[in-house]
Design goal:
Blueprint (H helix, E strand, L loop, with lengths): L1 H13 L19 H12 L3 E7 L2 E6 L3 E5 L15 E3 L2 E4 L3 E4 L2 E3 L1 H7 L4 E2 L6 E3 L4 E3 L3 H23 L5 H4 L1 H12 L6
Parallel strand pairs: 3-6
Antiparallel strand pairs: 1-2, 1-4, 2-3, 4-7, 5-6, 8-9, 9-10
Helix pairs in contact: 2-3, 4-6
Length: 191
Amino acid sequence: MDDMRMQFLDLLSDIGFVDKSRGANAYNQYSHDLEMICAILCAGLYPNVVQCKRRGKRTQFYTKEVGKVDIHPASVNAGVHLFPLPYMVYSEKVKTTGIYVRDSTNISDYALLLFGGNLIPSKSGEGIEMLGGYLHFSASKSVLELIRKLRGELDKLLNRKIEEPGLDISVEGKGVVAAVVELLHNHDARY
């Protein structure tokens, strides 16, 4: 793992995305922040999203494509019966005796709204939809507009980093990053 991490650092350094002389730890500010790690996994694994719905003392899982799925028995999440957050992302879906998702991570709705796919206004105008309307988020127009604006600022910052690899996001995007982190840490807040 350490060799892979260093190889990744070398690749990012070669394209000017990071300054290798600062060392790997300079870019690990959020390495112990579970909400941020889950949000990054959401960005990388989207659109592989599962809805988690509580049914008594258990959680059931649903995908857009096939409906009900289960967590693969070999997964570390297989023994977990209740998940605190409303969604999961996963790396692959397999069909054996049933349809299973593997390598899954529980994520918040805010992680999905900030790091998932396109946010489309719902047809009714009363929310935001993702995955062709499969996922629907309702909130007041002002809250939805704030989420859209924050997502827009985050997208601009990431695009700017791609266009200017040497851009120091910790300086240039400090306010946007702080707002994203704050929202991710308040996943219990209802909108």
